[in-house]
Amino acid sequence: MIETLDKIRSEALAALRPPKRLNLADWVESNVNLPSSIAAQPGRLRLWPHQRALANSIGDPNVERVTVLKSVRIGYTQMLIAALGHYAINDPGPVLCVLPADQDCRHLMTSGIEPTFAESPTLRSALLADVTGRDTMLNRHFPGGSLALVSANSPRNLRARTARILFLDEVDGFNVDARSEGDPVALAEKRTLSYSNRKIVMGSTPVDESTSRILRAYEKSDQRIYECPCPHCGEFQEIKWADIRWEPDQPETAHWVCPSCGAVTEESGKTSMVHAGRWRATKPEVEHHHGYKINALVSLLHNTAWPKLAAEFLEAKRSPETLKAFTTTLLAEPWRDSSDEIDQSALVKRYRPHNLENMPADTLVLTAGVDLQDDRLEMSTVGFNADGDARVLAHEIVWGSALQDSTWQELDDLLKRQWVHPNGGIIRLDACVIDSGHMAEQVLAFTGPRTSRRIVAGKGVAGFHRPALAWSKTRRARLALLGVDGLKLAIHQRLMHGDTITISDKLGQDYLDQLAAETLQVRYSRGHPVRQWHKISGRANEALDTLAYALAARHLIPLDLSQREAQLSGKAAAKPVVVKSKWLEG
């Protein structure tokens, strides 16, 4: 009888004993399944070697902060979702996830979290039971905790919550100031101060070196890098872009060259190198803050093969804009502006013998940008080829006040012009953006009846992360919101590097001076670096403004460029015209 009671007691205690604690990497691989809707290979999530240490840092209660300076294509989002599942099941508490915008929150929930949880039996019930009766799409409760997804642009939502676990994703995409209430990262971190066992996980691709949040956070960490052994000499090396080589114009020959022994490793040897790799902390004296830097060169996805990345680089290097995207999103390197000021003497090299009467033969699209002054309207006309190269063909001035109908009539006559294309067809203006920051009523009165001709009013909005052109939702009139900071930065970069912007040699030195009339400077706002454009004293900047508007106008044209090319060469099939004879009616 006593033996029976002892057995029952031991079995009961065994049943009550908590399960053996797994590190997060092992738990993820045992419990998280990927649905076919978000994974090329659905099924049990298998972590790559470089992901395991990162996952374990996120799950380690002795690590307060984890910072991930990352590229795309490394599976970070899937691992973040798996970590959310861990905290919902194994270590419940209030979890706050902050992303750049509302649409990012909705996308993560509906396209990532919900499908993954539904596919994983261990997680399936975590977000299904509305234990409070107050759940919404972005606010879920589970036994012992909650999950809230919040936009960095919503300071009210940040203030109204406390969190023990804080995930901050794509922090370099956050606004510097959340609606004048302060840095959203600082606001979010304050919500964790009441917890001694808080966890803060911050991840992002970097953007600009001078203002990058993720770069500053990584520099405060123990700065881990992923090193792989050379198959030939055995030395551990961080795989860097400078060591990826290929034969000229043959990206398919891309390979890695060991900086220690100079031996060549082909793409076929990459997998074994990565599996044998290790993380090394370059600042091991920093405690409780693990920092990881990882790029696409060690990713084992098919689309991150070295030859594929080399081909993407050759395509991207044509323009500073695309090169920047390649550098930041695939190499996880912040963009370093080589200069804050355009070299005016170098602008002369952008002169070409083209104009409206003698445009390049590959011109497929024409746009214009118009700026208003008290006594004149200034207009730049720009041609674009299939690759997006821009050719400034003219800069014209309409003298007269915007309060006079005759001024607008003259502008309308300019916008109605057409030219004989070098290939034989007729080309007209495809779109025009007119700045409405000055005399908005007159601009809207002019553009309203001409919207069908893609002649629209535009208003510049601050912020380097703003899209080049988006539509206002707050006004009845058709108003384009222009990301002028980014547009001007693109102009600067394209003028300083390459020849994707050229200028008619009919335009004089004053035009070039106006293009270089603003400099990009960094100042500090609430302790955080902020980039701003500053106009050089004594210089006009209408040429820069109108060129920015013309570049924005290109986004109004969803053209089939192959069809346009045929039209301009006279090869497009003409539609038959049927004229009904009145003679037959008699």
Secondary structure layout plus pairing:
Blueprint: H1 2-16, H2 24-31, E1 33-34, E2 43-44, H3 49-59, E3 65-70, H4 76-89, E4 94-99, H5 102-119, E5 139-142, E6 145-151, H6 155-159, E7 165-169, H7 184-190, E8 199-204, H8 213-219, E9 224-229, E10 236-238, E11 244-247, E12 250-257, E13 264-265, H9 270-275, E14 278-281, E15 289-294, H10 306-316, H11 320-329, H12 344-347, E16 351-352, E17 365-373, E18 376-384, E19 390-399, H13 405-415, E20 418-420, E21 426-428, E22 431-435, H14 440-447, E23 455-461, E24 469-471, E25 479-483, H15 484-496, E26 501-504, H16 509-515, E27 518-525, E28 528-535, H17 542-553, H18 561-568
Parallel strand pairs: 3-8, 3-15, 4-6, 4-7, 7-8, 9-15, 16-26, 17-22, 19-26, 22-23, 23-25
Antiparallel strand pairs: 1-2, 5-6, 9-10, 9-14, 11-12, 12-13, 17-18, 18-19, 20-21, 24-25, 27-28
The percent of residues in helical segments reads 25-40%
Q: What is the CATH topology assignment of the largest domain?
A: Rossmann fold
How many distinct beta strands? 28
CATH superfamily of the largest domain: P-loop containing nucleotide triphosphate hydrolases
Radius of gyration equals 29 Å
**Could you say which overall geometry the principal axes of the C-alpha atoms support?**
globular
